[in-house]
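Narrative of accomplishments. A recurring question from our advisory board has been how the design workflow behaves on a single, concrete structure rather than in aggregate. To address it, we present the structure tokens for one chain from the evaluation set, followed by the sequence designed for it. No filtering or post-editing was applied between the two.
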């Protein structure tokens, strides 16, 4: 059985304070963060066990009397190492010597991401464009170049923590007086103090500025799409890297065309007589003027499809279609002469006003029914 006094390197009549000092001295050498060897790890386990037993007066008396670390009536802390009561070697080591130990914090911070919205026309969304956008954001200070200090000066080491960013304070616990590590209040954990800050940025390493960017809007974007510009967001603190900029696209409504997916839709209205006799309709599209042939007898609601006249696919691969919806306009106000002509036409076609049959329906009856169904 291991001799715990020997493991700690103390005499059997050593005081509690001597045992504590011996443990701390050995632990600094054997802790896995300092000495990663397997031999040191095993010794550290024994060391921790020895301290656990000998630092407790009752368990120490039982150990001295029986040679058993638990003894008669002594509490059990589990099989190996520090058991449930202390949470492991690492916890008790951190209680004595402080957790973390990562050194002073860095002043450098990455800048925040930014989001702005840009409105474009439907035609620009279809073919793509380049827009100039103004952004008010943080940029690296040109005077100190992000160092935060006045020219010719540098940060000074914090006198409270000695540049470590952390200080240790004594704290009473069940194990006696231990050291607790906390962030240095004087330097806020940075380990240094800027005594002569840059007057331009007030020691931040960045200033706010309005700048203009040229943003390429790809063909095929739609409302709500975002364009990612890496490194174009706010500059970071103390010369830290810039965040990213996101451009959210908004598309203005068009007076003629509406978009559904990559297809464009337009409605063309023709008189009833033109739909009956046939005609040609001119339509100004994003690709120029298009002639649409309306054949005699064309009904309201018929759709003419012009391929490759729509919006370009965002990831390439062609364009959508332009779909032209025909709307036949039925006259609402007729002169007496016009009414007479329509009656003559109805008689000529054997159609009576207000009546229709399933066997035969005249063109004007069909047009009226189609119009009423819209």
């Amino acid at each position: 059985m291991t001799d715990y006094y020997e493991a700690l390197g103390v005499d059997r009549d050593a005081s509690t304070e001597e045992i504590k000092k011996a443990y701390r001295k050995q632990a600094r050498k054997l802790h896995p963060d300092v000495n990663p060897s397997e031999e040191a790890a095993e010794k550290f386990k024994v060391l921790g066990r020895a301290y656990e037993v000998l630092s407790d007066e009752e368990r120490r008396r039982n150990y001295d009397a029986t040679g058993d670390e638990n003894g008669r009536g002594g509490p059990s802390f589990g099989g190996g190492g520090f058991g449930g009561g202390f949470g492991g070697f690492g916890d008790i080591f951190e209680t004595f010597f402080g957790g973390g130990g990562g050194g002073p914090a860095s002043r450098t911070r990455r800048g925040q991401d930014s989001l702005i919205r840009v409105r474009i026309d439907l035609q620009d969304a279809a073919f793509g464009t380049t827009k100039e956008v103004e952004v008010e954001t943080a940029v690296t200070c040109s005077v100190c170049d992000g160092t935060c200090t006045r020219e010719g000066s540098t940060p000074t080491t914090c006198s409270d923590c000695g540049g470590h960013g952390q200080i240790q304070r004594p704290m009473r616990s069940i194990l006696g007086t231990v050291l607790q590590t906390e962030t240095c209040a004087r330097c806020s954990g940075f380990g240094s103090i800027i005594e002569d800050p840059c007057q331009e940025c007030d020691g931040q390493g960045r200033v706010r500025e309005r700048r203009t960017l040229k943003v390429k809007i790809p063909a095929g974007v739609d409302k709500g799409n975002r364009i990612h510009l890496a490194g174009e967001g706010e500059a970071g603190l103390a010369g830290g890297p810039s965040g990213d900029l996101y451009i959210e696209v908004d598309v203005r409504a068009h007076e003629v065309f509406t978009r559904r997916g990559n297809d464009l839709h337009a409605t063309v209205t023709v008189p009833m007589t033109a739909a009956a006799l046939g005609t040609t309709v001119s339509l100004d599209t994003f690709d120029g003027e298009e002639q649409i042939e309306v054949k005699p007898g064309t009904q309201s609601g018929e759709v003419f499809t012009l391929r490759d006249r729509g919006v370009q696919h965002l990831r390439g691969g062609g364009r959508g279609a332009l779909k032209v919806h025909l709307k036949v306009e039925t006259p609402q106000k007729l002169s007496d002469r016009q009414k007479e002509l329509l009656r003559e036409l109805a008689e000529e076609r054997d159609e009576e006003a207000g009546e229709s049959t399933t066997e035969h329906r005249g063109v004007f009856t069909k047009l009226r029914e189609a119009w009423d169904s819209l």
